[in-house]
Amino acid sequence: MATPTRTQAEAAPAAAALTHTIRVAVPERGIRQDLRAAGIVWRRELIRFRTDRLRAVTSLIQPVLFLFILGTGLGALAGHGLPDGVSFRTFIYPGVVAMGVLFTAIFSAGSIVWDREFGFLREMLVAPVNRGAIVLGKCLGGATVATFQGIIVLILAGLAGVPYNPVLIVTLIGELLLLSFTLTAFGVMMAARIKQFQAFMALTQMLVMPLFFLSGALYPLNGLPAWLTVLTRIDPLAYIVAPMRRAVFSHLNISPAAVSELAPGVSWAGWVVPLGLSLAIVAVMGIAMVMIAIVEFSKTE
Amino acid sequence: MAVETGAQAGGSAQAAPAGPGSARGTAISVSELTKRYGEIEAVRGIDFEVARGETFGFLGPNGAGKSTTISILCTLIRPTSGRAVVAGHDVATERDTVRRNIGLVFQDTTLDSYLTAEQNLRFHADLYGVPKAAVAPRIRQVLEMVGLWDRRESLVRTYSGGMQRRLEIARGLLHAPHVLFLDEPTVGLDPQTRSSIWRYINELKQREDITIFLTTHYMDEAEHCGRIAIIDHGKIVAIDTPEALKASVGKDRVQISTADDPAAIAELGERFALEAAMHEGLVTFSVESGEEFVPRLFAQLDVAIRSVSVARPSLDDVFMSYTGRTIRDTEATGADAMRAMAQRFGRRR
After folding, report:
1. What is the pTM of this model?
2. Fewest CB within a 10 Å sphere: which of A31, A154, B39, B302?
């Protein structure tokens, strides 16, 4: 970008800055500008997350309740089908990690509705940048923040009988990042249409719990009644919980037969969806929802 | 990307560098602009020009079409017909270029109250692509201009209403726009804060080569403008300097309260050939020389007079002479409903 430089006074030392007007030539819109805009939207999410410790703590409560209270309580009952050394807590651990990012990701996206109510969205929408950059920055920001939240739950792995294996942890973080991105994209897509924060929270609450319960986080996906089988197969969350569980179980000290029995992956009429395809489904959904969100936000103002 | 460090004012003969694309001389040019929302015609064919460096005010009651006009000029809404050129670019076809060249301060706050003042400005700088080397010095400069440099690390939520407005003005200036739009810049602030905001705006005009376009329904605020346009029912009814407008009215305004107001109005009409009307609960009329008229009034009016006030022409009178009512009269009418509607339209985009 070649903007002509005009220097009326010789480059002013810092101290003289006060008596000189700093002239700023705002450059033409371009890919670099859009990246920079996406970057600052992303950074704002991080700053907000860092300063909002209460949110970080409260969104940990639910996973901890599920893992230790529900997991231990139901474990006495449900633990019989599991091989030695695998507790019910271990079984639900991958699902609970996914849950850890669920609320944070949706809540991050929901801040768009909040921003709209309090005016800040306007500051973003009137800027001379591509709306896509703002939406993308928001989705990546929400994904980053939610993944951090998920990592905190990962720290509890030992208490659920899951080993701290570097490969396992890196795999899980990668899967969490994908999940968080798709969830945030889903939330941002909804936030494009919903104007009131109350309505957004009510709607997401209504959707999030069914998504979680149908994901197979708390029970295996095989041997279910037909109606429940169908419902679980259309839950996008199932396609991320299955690979996460497979990752956890393949790092446990159990036989390969037990692994494929306990973490079989999602199957369609007997055909087991490969892990790669399973992850690809989640990624494609995320990208599709980001696209929809960009179109929605480009229409406004 | 370039940072230009120009010596400020100082009486230097060097012409201020013309911004890219800004037609030298004219900052805003509007012709036959209209905007209709279904049945309602919010702006009904207005024309005006604002010169570079001018402070131009749109004065009118709520619902007169001010907010709609400023929104069109800021590219936030599209005109139904007509043309508006801001900083040398058409608001309908060159939206992004216009946006790069203007600063916006809205009626409602658009700050992130959970960030610090500095973080808010940094966000803006990155969003508007302020050259990286210029960001820190420019942030310092605009914060000092509005007297908030010491509070730069405080969260905006700890700011008072007046401080938030000052921060918004600073942010509007951050990317060195050619035209700064202020929509009701001091609405909802107490009188002391309002005057301090104006002190900052006036100082800023000394420092920056900038055109200011503002809307207001406060008469005293309009006095700060170099030129004002009085807008009513979507049309400009008068446009000139505040002094010229006041001179054009020429008459003093007399307001009296009497024992029997309708009788007093009738008598003023018969005996003095004056057109009096009720405004703000007082019998109101205009005469050439108020001080000389009042003694005659006491001597000749049959209705008992309780109080009397004489005022030199103010913008209130200008407004009244062009629209037939005071701006406060309009507050009580359906104007509020109109405004609420206009704002709803404004928000929905």
Report:
1. 0.80
2. B39
